[in-house]
Amino acid sequence: MLLYTGFDNLVVVTPDQKAVGIPLSLDAIFAAENPPALVRSALAAGTAAKVPAKLRAPLQSQEVWAAGVTYLRSRTARMEESKDAGGGTFYDKVYHADRPELFFKSTPHRVAAPGEAVRLRADSKWNVPEPELTLAINARGKIFGYTVGNDMSSRDIEGENPLYLPQAKVYDRSAALGPCLLLRDEPLPATTEISIEILRKNAPVFTGGIAIDQIKRTFASLAEFLFRDNAFPHGCYLMTGTGVVPPDNFTLASGDEIRITIPPIGTLINPVA
Asked: Rounded distance, CA 93 to CA 221, Å?
């Protein structure tokens, strides 16, 4: 099932391609013991609908967190950007450690919706998007769905000093989620691909992709570490890290368009402000 969030409604597209408006809130779904089952039961009380023309990010009160250094390519990029600050070895140690790197990414009001612009930090000269499969986790710590995430990053700020990570990662519209929330009882296939295309003046300037079987850690392990001594009464989202990093000579520019695709979720499109 694909769950789309409008400005005053939730619309489910069922496996047989029927669009149904349901009388639920996202907070109620994330609080449920079995969110997919709750949504399936709500379909009986739903009404025929259309997918909203203008979508909101698929969250209500949920925090967004992120994992880092979960793919080998990410580890290498973080070591390279931090070598002048002497922090490169930190990332190699994190990549091989039992405990993952987890960090707070965004509150709901900072998250860009599909079609809404993500932002570049005004005090950064090296900015990249990070395409990431993002887990929807209910209040009990159970993974029940997936969406597409963009973890915008200021690589020069983080590379200057690893302690600057929050400034490199957390600012207004430094995250984007969408276009919908895929609800599944079973995990995604390991062959699921994450791909990205960045357009500049309607021409591609960077493309890349990776399968989620290249991630070093299991999604269940990431969720378990996040919920250690942490309560999420409205559930949360967890970005799972990136394995696609543009070359060091690339930086985003105002006016670029970022397209991140993860089938069967769809494509998240955001212009760059």
From this structure: 18
The overall average pLDDT reported for the chain is 94
Predicted pLDDT at 91: 79
Burial 189-205 (b: 16+ CB within 10 A, else e): eeebebbbbbbeeeeee
Spatial neighbors of 230 by CB under 8 A, at least 6 apart, are: none
Q: Is the pLDDT of residue 73 over 80?
A: no
Nearest of 269, 261, 168, 257 to residue 206 by alpha carbon = 257
DSSP3 helix / strand / coil % (the chain, rounded to 5)? 25, 35, 40
Tell me: pLDDT of 86 over 60. Answer: no
Residue spans of beta strands (DSSP E) within 2-125: 2-5, 10-13, 19-22, 47-48, 63-68, 101-106, 111-112
Domains in the chain with CATH codes: 2-48 (no CATH), 63-271 (3.90.850.10)
Give the C-alpha separation, 126 to 260, whole Å.
20
Asked if residues 169 and 150 have their Cβ atoms less than 8 Å apart, the reply is no
Q: Determine the distance from the C-alpha atom of residue 6 to the mean position of all C-alpha atoms in its chain, rounded to a whole number.
A: 19
Check if the beta carbon of residue 223 is closer than 8 Å to that of residue 135: yes
Give CA–CA dist 124/168, Å, rounded.
Answer: 8
